[in-house]
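User: I'm curious whether this sequence folds into something compact or stays loose and floppy. Could you predict its structure so I can see for myself?
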Amino acid sequence: MNTFSFICIFLIVLSGAYIFGHRYALSSVKNSTELHSLPSYHGFYVAIWFAFPALIVLVFWYFIEPIIIKSILLESIRTTALLGSTTPDLLLNDIKNLATNSFALKSASAVKLELVNRYLELKSLGIYLKIVILFSIGMLGIFIARKKLSPKMRARQSVERVFTLVLGVCSIIAILTTIGIVLSLLFESIRFFNKVSPAEFLFGLHWSPQTALRSDQIGASGAFGAVPIFAGTLLITLIAMIVAIPIGLLSAIYMAEYASPKFRNWIKPTLEILAGVPTVVYGFFAALTVAPVIRGFGESMGLSVASESALAAGLVMGVMIIPFISSLSDDIINAVPQSLRDGSYAMGATKSETIKKVVLPAALPGIAGSILLAVSRAIGETMIVVMAAGLAAKLTANPLEAVTTVTVQIVTLLVGDQEFDSPKTLAAFALGLVLFVVTLILNIVALIIVRKYREKYD
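Assistant: Here's the prediction. I'll summarize afterward.
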């Protein structure tokens, strides 16, 4: 039995437990109004008593099963003649690899083949034992829940306490994950700054992290001045914002103030499709279509344009970010109270004057927050700049030249097999820490602005 079949059976039995609790609650009274809680809460109560004990057993089994199988197999391995040239643990790993590789299994020895069959038998037996134990515990939970069900039972409070606990655990997991990400970046960045001066990294003008393996080789000491990378990131982000802010904001104003409801219901989802296009598709579009067009147009005017330019990446990135600004700004403009518009119209102002002098000033804090969120999205973009902007770290303000960004360098430094003890590899974590801090600050500023706006106009 595979995992999908097991999940389907588990969900079917879980649904049966819910239906049992729901129908039992209705059958225990003549009128549903006699129940303290709705019948659905009784159903959820029984389903929880089935699911939670079963899931606890499943988690326990996930950790204990490999230990049991390993101990049984090691006993079988010690009785064979295969231990002369290797250790039991290495032989055990070899058996596990053979069990998942049918091609290599054809050339295995008879003793190894026997051990592989033994391993597969233990795995199959473990699956059936897991199913039996799991559903036995689950049925015991249903039996206990059945004993506790009664018309006056406070099933709603019990179910809500469980859901509150689940939500709290999920929140803690999210917080711990964030803390883990920050600490992993921080610890590796500290290791990097122990080898490279923070002043050189933050203010240096030359980036060449290709360090040599021996001291007598060329490039034995790399250069880790990240200013060209930061400049390239800001240049592409600036171009993207020049494209995205006017188009996104004007489209939001049109949809909120001028478009008919029918047209708005059609155009807004169409515009938001741009947000669902994978970034790698934008990267292909930038590299294969936009960049050659810009290069051809620039050469026709006598300009020197690189095959991969900041302008091409910035233009396509701006198109990608349009839905972020447009959708958020549209919602913010619609949130401006109608009484402000009516007051402006009562004073004799036209629609365009009302938009310019009343609606936009009232929505400005929220619009600013949406723009900052879009900027943080642009700074963290990877695929478009990897495919369309180039890899050269140049300190330039010319959008027709190839530049690189923080995310591109992180990808470049961590491609392939790496040893995490050299400044070259650790530089990726320092860049990641800077990127994390910048985007975090932008998001905090955006949230503060939006919160002030909501407090003022809700």
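Summary: The longest strand covers residues 207-208. The beta strands are 207-208, 223-224.
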